[in-house]
Amino acid sequence: MSTTTLTHVSALSRLGHALSDDTRTRILLALRDGPARPSALAGELGVSKQVMSNQLACLRGCGPVSYTHL
Questions:
Q1: Close Cβ partners of 26 (under 8 Å, ≥ 6 residues apart)
Q2: Among candidates 63, 55, 61, which has minimal Cα distance to 30?
Q3: 51: which of 25, 45, 47, 69 fits an S-S bond (Cβ 3.0–4.6 Å)?
């Protein structure tokens, strides 16, 4: 396998992991319209701030989400 193919496989695997959890998928759908604060997302999705923090950390690690301190 070429290096490029391995890179694509790795990226798709990370994306698949991000989408494999309903809460993470709901977070990504909620972020379609733009940035949001974690506490606002937690309230909107009906999860605790701790759950939101954990799920956002996973999404940052998988690649589809980044964050900026305001």
A1: 45
A2: 55
A3: 47
pLDDT in tens, 13-56: 888 888 889 999 999 999 998 999 999 999 999 999 999 999 99
Residues in the chain: 70
Token digits of residue 60: 């940052």
b (16+ CB within 10 A) / e for 28-67:
eeeeeeeeeeeeebbeebebeeeebeebbebbeebeebee
Q: What is the pTM of this model?
A: 0.80
Residue 69 pLDDT > 80 = no
Closest among 7, 23, 3 to 65, alpha carbons compared: 23
